[in-house]
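Structure representation:
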Amino acid sequence: MEKKEKILELKNVVYSFHTYGGVVQAVRDVSFEVRKGEVLGIVGESGCGKSVTAQCILRLNPEPPGFFGGGEIFYKGKDVLKMTNKEIREIRGGEIGFVFQDPMTSLNPTMRVGAQIEEVFYGRKDVSKEEKKKRAIEIMKLVGISDAEKRYKQYPHELSGGMKQRVMIAIALVSRPSVIICDEPTTSLDVTIEAQILDLLLELRDKLGTSIIMITHDLGVIARLCDRVIVMYGGKVVERGDVNEIFYETAHPYTRGLMGSIAKLDMSRGEKLKPIEGTPPDLFAPPKGCPFAARCEYCMDVCRELPPEEYRFSEEHKANCWLHHEYAPDNDIRKTVIKEGEV
């Protein structure tokens, strides 16, 4: 399969927060790329670093207390971390849109919906007042908001949850961005509205050619929407691959645990879900070895002592797990490793 053009790339990003209790190492050496017109999923349980990683892309995390400890973030070849405040403001909302986690609290209750959509154009003298309104109403119609002229003048409390989420997507899309980051956009919605929002995102991707980063803990959303998937745990990427490889060729015990903890249609009556025992690592003092070692049923001594190497199983599929080392004991998760230089 021919690779699409790379539009966004994170290289060895490290991001931490100063707190009264010490330094929280929220994102630890995270690298991945986003290609033009694809949907990239980032999945993992709460606290694994998904949202902080996404907000690093637009430098939305408050600094201080947050700070970058290293790494680079390239958007169309330019390092976001070296941009001036003016340059990063032009990218926020303009080049890269962001749909925040909770539409109930992300919208300003004192501002009309239309004014909030138009805020993206704040400070741009090349867009007239009439043009702002025209583009706001156009995008409202595009995201499926009925009676857009009326909704334009309403306040958020007059809209349903699903309609508020559509407004959030409209805000992210009004300037026709190259990339849209969706941070759990369906968390507070019922399943019917969730399905509509996911269909809408795919339709917009097809119409506008927009790349989408979908952050979620819902594997159903990942299966339905994504082309490639990044699995995060303890502030690190533990597995990556195309969506079929992640679901059907799982190569990391944490990913397998996620798969085993969700209900399936073929489960027998009375069959119990299999939870991942234990708790996530303390990011004030992260483990020196594999972040999942303390909860892993396959854990070996080396897992606690050394961070695992990255093993490659196909062009896209990689995992950081010692179980794939040639000297590891036989196990049912091991895959055939492709060495450097092999196709």
User: Anything to note?
Assistant: DSSP finds twelve helices and twelve strands in the chain. The mean pLDDT is 86. Residues 69 and 137 are 42 Å apart (CA to CA). The first helix runs from residue 50 to 57.
